[in-house]
Write a structure and sequence with these properties.
The strands form 4 sheets. Strands 11-12-7-13 form a 4-stranded antiparallel beta sheet, with helices on one face. A 3-stranded antiparallel beta sheet has the order 1-6-5. The protein has 3 helices and 13 strands. It starts with 8 loop residues before the first strand and ends with a helix. The mean pLDDT is about 90. The chain is elongated, with a radius of gyration of 21 Å. By secondary structure, it is of the alpha+beta class.
Length: about 190
């Protein structure tokens, strides 16, 4: 039995789940609503404030989908009840970000500014920067997949380089640094 798939997803207060025709789960909560289509082979039951997933056989395909759909639905329940947040730090001289609603404007050392339009489900916040600190971009959403995809897209605009560490990185991310030419000459 799958270690992840056999665990039931418990529903917190203010979160409701509806099983629609076609094996579609609809989760509603204080932070919005999300839908997920579950493979027809996986049996979904909602009872006693818990969602349970069962697979028909022990085939590798069924085993992998069992854990996958349980994890996706768990993230949906977590997202509509609490929401998700990612923080990104812009490291580099003159690197800035400005948020006007769903439009982000980045100044990342290129000859032009980069503008990025966010999905309506994602909100961005740029707190005031204190002297000597790097600008931080805070992204929030109830959809974990979408939030990760948007954060990865923003990071790809200027990935951290290994020598000085300049670029867009996640807060708390450990970068692998390389020694420069002067270290090799000694």
């Amino acid at each position: 039995m799958s270690r992840i798939g056999k665990l039931p997803v418990s529903l917190p207060d203010k979160v409701s789940v509806e099983l629609l025709p076609g094996n579609v789960l609809k989760v509603k909560g204080p932070h919005g609503e999300l839908c997920q289509k579950v493979d027809p082979d996986i049996k979904v039951t909602v009872e006693d404030n818990q969602i349970k997933f069962e697979r028909p056989t022990d085939q590798p395909r069924h085993r992998s989908m069992h854990g996958l759909y349980r994890a996706l639905v768990h993230n949906m329940v977590e997202g509509v009840s609490n929401g998700f947040e990612k923080k990104q730090e812009l490291v580099g001289v003159g690197y800035r970000v400005a948020a006007q609603g769903q439009l982000l404007t980045f100044s990342l050392g290129y000859s032009h500014d980069i503008q990025l339009m966010l999905a309506p489900e994602v909100t961005a916040e740029v707190p005031a920067v204190k002297k000597g600190e790097n600008p931080v971009l805070i992204l929030r959403s109830n959809d974990k997949q979408l939030l990760g995809q948007v954060a990865a897209k923003i990071r790809s605009l200027r990935k951290p380089e290994p020598y000085k560490g300049k670029g867009i990185k996640f807060v708390g991310e450990q970068l692998r640094r390389k020694a420069g030419k002067t270290a090799a000459a000694k």
